[in-house]
Amino acid sequence: MKFSDNAMSAILLCSYIGINKDDTAKPFSLGEWNQFLDKVIDMKLDPSVVLSNDMGMLTRLKYSSNEIERIKKLVSRGGAVAFEIDDLSNKGIEVITLFDADYPVLLKRKLKRKTPPILFYAGDINLAKKIGIAVVGSRDVDQAGMEFTRKLVSRASEERLVVYSGGAKGVDSISEITAIENGSAVVSFIADSLSAKIKKKEVLKNILQQKLLLISDVKPEAGFSAARAMNRNKYIYAAAYGAFVISSDYNKGGTWAGAIENIKNDWTKEFVWNHKEYNGNIKLIEKGAIPYELSDEKIYDSITKKESSYNQLDIFNLTTTIVNETSNEYKKIENQNIVISQDIYEVVKDYIVGNIGSGLSLEQASEQFKVAKGQMKIWLKRLCDDEKIILENAIYSKKSTN
């Protein structure tokens, strides 16, 4: 694969490709990468500026001499990187960056500054563009949870929905096997051992038959880490059009942590099996997840259903909202909430941004602006998408101009 200069800058700065154990220069963390992007954007430059060997430019970007030396070492290993990428490709593993056209678009759109700049994958990357559901749950799920998982995924497969998963034991593996057996496909975000996993006969067969795509944000040889396993949860949720939690412990474990993280960040609709025996499930529903049981309603309709629109616009002295009832499927899926008329949005956006203060939760914003919660959520999401405000830990606040 041929990489653009910007893509190569991401690989050189952010990956361990071509780095030996003895190398002292460590790649950028995600935070350092975001700071770098902020710097080059402020200077109206491209990330590829680091490839020019213009050390004066790095000084103008306000990097210290030690930081400049580190960057020089990272970008000087181009030959080693090219060799290793070619070696990985021969093994069936490809590299993709957020600057590449085939990078999973929903990750960039939803995760924003949490988007991993580099991904490794094995399989057809186009599977990550398909509409699908995330299915998550405990490793030690009981028989009832297993049966519900199979029924849910079988139904999703009938609707030609892809399953997004994490490749772990329990609910993850049951959902993946069920999807493939029923003619669907799986996109599995794994936290370790990509190189080892693709050597398994069944895995390789499914990859070659374009039924399985494995994606990882860590070097293919990396071993298991609990922290990395927790970190990849956000990718599963962000890539899907709706997430289904089958079973969760209460206030512990990866399933609970991932579900809570999604509720706070609102990456995708979150459905939780309304099963009274699972205490974690009930608590997630109490925190805002949607209770779910199998019914006659199609899963596709559930994940794309628009929320009720509201006419409560007292603070702006408006009496009606204009709803854009577009039939365009892309917009229908992209905006899971009702899309408010551009004219009305233009009226309210500056007022909200100017009065949001140091930060408000959805409930606080609804109360302060005297707007129904559903309507408020729609506007806050639009403001986040337009990068007027940011959402962190369930608090909406004005974007810093520093």
Automatic annotation (TrEMBL):
InterPro entries according to UniProt: DprA, DrpA_SLOG
SUPFAM superfamilies: MCP/YpsA-like
GO BP terms, alphabetized: DNA-mediated transformation
Ranges for domain Smf/DprA SLOG: 95-294
Organism domain of life: Bacteria
Signal peptide annotation: none
Pfam families for the chain: DNA_processg_A (PF02481)
Family from the record: Belongs to the DprA/Smf family.
Protein name (Swiss-Prot/TrEMBL): DNA protecting protein DprA
Organism: Anaerocolumna cellulosilytica
